[in-house]
Design brief:
Layout lengths: L19 H11 L5 H21 L4 E2 L11 H5 L2 E7 L5 E2 L2 E2 L3 E10 L4 H12 L6 E2 L1 E4 L1 H8 L3 H8 L5 H21 L4 E6 L1 H5 L2 H5 L7 H22 L5 E6 L18 H7 L4 E5 L19 E7 L9 H11 L8 E5 L14 H19 L4
Helix pairs in contact: 1-2, 5-10, 7-10
Amino acid sequence: MTHTHAPYRVDHVGSFLRPVALIQAREDFAAGKISQADLTKVEDQAIRDLVEKEIAAGLKSVTDGEFRRAYWHLDFFWGFNGVEHVVGERGYLFHGIETKADTAVLKAPINGKNHPFVKHFEFLRDLVKEEDVIVKFTIPSPSQFYFELIRTPEHVAAWEAVYPTTDELFEAIIKAYSEVIQDLYDAGLRTLQLDDCTWGALVDDGFAKRFREDRPLEEVRREFAARALRLNNGVIANAPKDLVINTHICRGNFHSTWISQGGYNKVEDELLGGENVNAYYLEYDTDRAGDFKPLAKVGKDKKVVLGLITSKFADLEDKEEVIARIKEASEYVPLENIYLSTQCGFASTEEGNVITEEDQWKKIGLIKEIVEEVWGSEN
């Protein structure tokens, strides 16, 4: 390989459709029909099969497809000591559909000791140790955890009973995240991806209105953007210096639907100008994400992974249209700093998008074809 961390020219966000055997095993486990050990065996085999397919598709950074999770984010939160898995009154409201009502509630002082995701990484690490690929491990961003903790007034009351001030909460979040990340690093991880829907929420005026009270909308947006940046950069600052940290920005991805809309211009200074990541994986598969002009805020040493291929629908994009959009984006970011992927994973939750497994690999194949035309065989 020409380099040893993501992004790569042909890239992906991380999650893949769950195979039928895994879906059935998770249902059987929930119903008490099989043990945790039985479920883990099925997960292990599903991940082995997936990694073979990732490598065969030409991907240089492989993931476990998030096959051990029900959600891209909540399972990680539940792994913290002091956080409880709670079923609330409502799920997340997407356009035309609602998720299950699972949530994470802070019930006691939190820490990241013995987080189960470390063992998940170790399995994947050992699986590819003889292969010419790297492991990319995905976790939700610290800001995403905070946004979960302010989801309802009941969420806020729960953490305020433990941490009287927001500053104390933020210090605890940064410390807990740093503990998990250090353990992942000590186990061999060198590429971490922070998945983050908070910026996608902040660009949507509807979200910001929830916290307006009698204040101007932009004042609220700036306040919460500053909080997100403080949390994310706080964790990044604590991480080992040779751990590559990238971020993926999304506007919601559940059963081929979405939750928010708005251009990056509304958070360009904080996100693109201020977040201390190596690369941005940016949703750009519809006009809900706005235009490319905010990319001018991206630092010259940072990379941009354009999510121009949708993971939500099976229809393949027109190759020439995608190439034209890459050319347009290169007016703001040098072509050598641009990479290509889907806008999000294929299954941000265990339900997955409304496509087939064959469809998802065709999408990866299309990315590979476009990359070869634009950049040649370069990784």
